[in-house]
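Renewal narrative, Specific Aim 1. Our central claim is that a sequence can be written position by position from structural information alone. The example that follows is taken directly from our test logs and has not been curated for this report. It begins with the structure tokens describing the chain, in the order in which they were read.
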């Protein structure tokens, strides 16, 4: 495995992005490569992100998904920006801003 690592700063989050374009080269495929992407919220530690409530996400995907992006970090930033527009994420942000007595 040959991972590259990037640190993203997105809003107030520090996120580590690890990417391996071909973690299992010994596996025969039909002309495609499976890539591995790991996303880990480092600060706040394991804080929820728009695409994961645990602050960690591991994804296997066709390597061509990242074509057109400068890096895996650029792909993740676009994913974060898109997922942060969902009603579920907006509701979770609003709830975190509200004080609760219970």
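The sequence written for that structure reads:
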């Amino acid at each position: 495995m040959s991972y590259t690592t990037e640190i993203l700063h997105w809003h107030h989050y520090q996120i580590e992005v690890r990417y391996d374009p071909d973690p299992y080269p010994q596996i025969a495929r039909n002309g495609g490569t499976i890539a591995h992407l790991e996303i880990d919220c480092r600060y706040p530690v394991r804080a929820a992100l728009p695409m994961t409530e645990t602050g960690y996400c591991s994804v296997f995907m066709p390597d061509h998904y990242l074509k057109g992006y400068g890096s895996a970090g650029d792909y993740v930033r676009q994913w974060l920006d898109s997922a942060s527009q969902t009603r579920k994420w907006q509701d979770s942000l609003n709830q975190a801003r509200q004080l609760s007595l219970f």
